[in-house]
Amino acid sequence: MVDYRVEDQFAILEINNPPVNALSLHVREGLLNGVLRASADNNVKAIILIGKGKTFPSGADIKEFSRPGKAPWLPEVGHTIESSNKPVFSALHGTALGGGLEIALFSHYRIAEKTAKVGFPEVHLGLLPGAEGTIRLPRLTGLVIAMEMITSGRQVSAKEALKFGIVDKVVEGNLLKETKAFAKSVLGQPLEPRKLSLCGVKDADQVDKYYEAALKELLKKYRGVIAPVSCLKSIRGSAQLPYKEAAELERTLFSELMSGAQSAALRYSFFAERAASRWNLPNGASSANSKPLTIKSAAVIGAGTMGSGIAICLIRSGIPVILVEQNEKMLENALRNIGYILQGSVKLGRMTVDQRSDCLRILQGAASIEKLKDVDIVIEAVYENLKLKQEIFEKLDKICKPTALLCSNTSTLDIDLIASVTSKPDRVAGTHFFAPAYIMKLLENIYGSKTSPITVATIMDLGKKIGKISVLSKTCDGFIANRMNKIGTEAAFLVEEGALPHDIDQVLEDFGMPMGVFKVSDLSGIDIGWSIRQEMAKKQGITLTLETHYVSGERYSSLADRLYNLGRLGLKTGKGWYRYNNASNSRKPIIDPDVTDMILNHCEKLRIKRRQISPQEIIERCLYATVNEGFKILEEGVAEKPEDIDIVWQYGFSFPRYRGGPMFYASQVGLKKVYERICYYHESFPYSKHWLPSDLLKKLVSHPNEVPINLWMNYTNSKL
Ligand SMILES: CCCCCCCCCCCCC[C@H](O)CC(=O)SCCNC(=O)CCNC(=O)[C@H](O)C(C)(C)COP(=O)(O)OP(=O)(O)OC[C@H]1O[C@@H](n2cnc3c(N)ncnc32)[C@H](O)[C@@H]1OP(=O)(O)O
């Protein structure tokens, strides 16, 4: 794990723990023993710590955090480094992060390869740098930079690290050779001034001012998230307390975070995100044995909001796009809008003027699909109508080259039905983007019964290339995301039973959702849901009225239909579930007594006796219904593993990452408790089939050993 050799009187400690040289127990032991050995060796003048492979250590081993750890701990290794009688040089390349950077800060000197990056990403794991990083970094950079770097988790380039005083030199070429050369130039100089534990924080007298300003920002930016504030408290300690006491405070804060629910969820999320990129199909094909095709050109059909957004994602990644739209005016508008959106990115510093021009150069509009014969992939993003989509796919099948992938951005429709009109169903898949497509990180990829492994591998790989988090779903009505989302349905029932829209929104926002469900509904438009419901009713041959309370034996709420009938279509009409001050162009929702009256009248007409609804019930009704459907999705193999579901929720619906996702949340509450409440709600609401308890959940609670391990057990520390 740590290779030891002596060259030119340098003891080289080469850390060899692929893939990221995490500081696992054996690495810590190797470093400790290596430094002690070199310190005692009269033939050694200096010690160099360097990473083998692609990086200097990128942090502590996160996997070790979920089991009882073993000494030597990182701070002990660090102090052994700092107190060595030989100068220690850390040679940084790749990503020197977290514990890796802390090891470097215990060293007497730091040399960085030009492309190296350094940072403290612990905050993203709900932690703080717990091996004295919060005490040492401010001693090098001053408080403001340390506060910014540690509370944001931002990685800084070698050049910036040099400017901040984190590294002593930036080098090009052979890192070891350059480090030796630098070492030779400073050998013989006293070590004491290089020991950060003996230095002070130069702007310590300003700490209260900086602390207050940073705290105000953090509370605004990270509502409900505790780690950033703990980071700040620890940095304040570094300026206010003697070194040893500051380190003790850091240790206490670190332990509190480490044993808390938020860090558990964030650490789970780190691995869940990586697990979601690995997939297995029922036929044995998998990400490990399937190679993607290279996508060099693409077409997007439909220049509405979704189509334009998808085109932006592709051109931003250098993939030329033909954007097809029959309506010339609409096409013209879309191309102009794409230009504006990219202009906005330039203004925000997310791309340069040249990059914007490069994007627009590879974007081309077309009025018909005849031009698509050479593209590698087509993504259709027209109106959600099966017949229309089938017509398009039938044409594409004739026009496109045989190797082209034909994908649909459908959010609900069966991929098999779309593929059935083509002669190459193995090339057909779903690529479901979330609005706005150029911002939302999720790409929900869908395979049908005939989709080939190459097609799946290609769309999963494409997602990664365009900067998305791809998750794979088997085809079904609504796929993982929309099928599972029962929040809106239960929220409407809760309003009928006694809550008000703003009560529910408040509870969901306090839980950590960025916006309550009724605010979201106003933003996307009440008419959207209305047309989906009308379409569904048409299919079933029924007519919906404002008094409809059951549809095909299922409970139904017509509250949103009432809003539609009143012309309250949401933000765009200035009125929906809330009222908006359109005169001042404000998007701020205002509680509207007219809506309350409408709700009360509705309940009176339907003879619903209203009651007091607790915040606990709101959470349970909205989330447990969703979780129950999640288990059914797992049971049916729509999602391969719970991580896939949780990642869909985090990146598609902005579910708070510090709660892990609905499935992880359920495991934290305790599956037994969740199951019992689902059974209770099933008894209370027999006309909502989403409360019919999932067999998988029942089995997990009663006979956990009979459940295949990939479906649950190895991913969570579920409390049964
Ligand atoms: C008696 C009781 C006494 C108690 C005393 C307690 C003392 C306390 C001491 C605590 C000291 C800890 C202090 C330290 O500050 C804490 C940390 O260091 S936390 C970790 C900080 N580092 C990170 O968060 C980095 C995370 N990794 C990344 O950001 C990226 O992986 C990367 C390094 C930028 C590389 O990105 P990519 O090249 O894209 O590669 P992947 O992301 O796909 O990763 C590849 C592979 O590696 C796995 N992995 C990555 N990082 C870690 C890690 N830190 N630990 C374990 N595993 C890691 C990753 O999961 C991938 O594997 P896969 O999941 O695909 O199998």
Question: Your description of this structure?
Answer:
By secondary structure, the protein is of the alpha/beta class. The strands form 4 sheets. An 8-stranded mixed beta sheet has the order 12-11-10-13-14-15-16-17, sandwiched between helices. A 6-stranded mixed beta sheet has the order 1-2-3-4-6-9, sandwiched between helices. Strands 5-7-8 form a 3-stranded mixed beta sheet. Helix 12 links the parallel strand 10 (about 300) and strand 11 (about 320-325). Helix 9 runs antiparallel to helix 10, helix 12 (about 305-315) crosses helix 13 and helix 25 packs across helix 28 (about 670-685). The longest helix has 21 residues, at about 615-635. It starts with a strand and ends in an 18-residue tail after the last helix. The mean pLDDT is about 95. The protein binds ligand LNIPZVSO. This is Peroxisomal bifunctional enzyme. Its main location: other.
List keywords for this structure.
alpha/beta; eight-stranded mixed β-sheet; six-stranded mixed β-sheet; 19 strands; 11% strand; binds ligand LNIPZVSO; EC 5.3.3.8; isomerase
In angstroms, what separates the terminal alpha carbons?
37 Å
- Kindly report the average pLDDT value: 95
Oligomer: single chain
Instruction: Enumerate how many helices there are, as a single number.
Output: 29
List cofactors, ions and other ligands.
ligand LNIPZVSO
Strand runs, count: 19
Main β-sheet: number of strands, strand sense, barrel status?
A: 8 strands, mixed
Over the alpha carbons, how many angstroms does the gyration radius reach?
A: 29 Å
List unreliable stretches of 5+ residues.
Answer: none
Helix content: 40-55%
SS strand fraction: 5-15%
Catalytic activity: (3S)-hydroxyhexadecanoyl-CoA = (2E)-hexadecenoyl-CoA + H2O; a (3E)-enoyl-CoA = a 4-saturated (2E)-enoyl-CoA; (3E)-hexenoyl-CoA = (2E)-hexenoyl-CoA; (3S)-hydroxydecanoyl-CoA = (2E)-decenoyl-CoA + H2O
InterPro entries: 3-OHacyl-CoA_DH_NAD-bd (IPR006176), 3HC_DH_C (IPR006108), 6-PGluconate_DH-like_C_sf (IPR008927), ClpP/crotonase-like_dom_sf (IPR029045), Enoyl-CoA_hydra/iso (IPR001753), NAD(P)-bd_dom_sf (IPR036291)
Subunit structure: Monomer.
GO molecular function, one term: (3S)-3-hydroxyacyl-CoA dehydrogenase (NAD+) activity
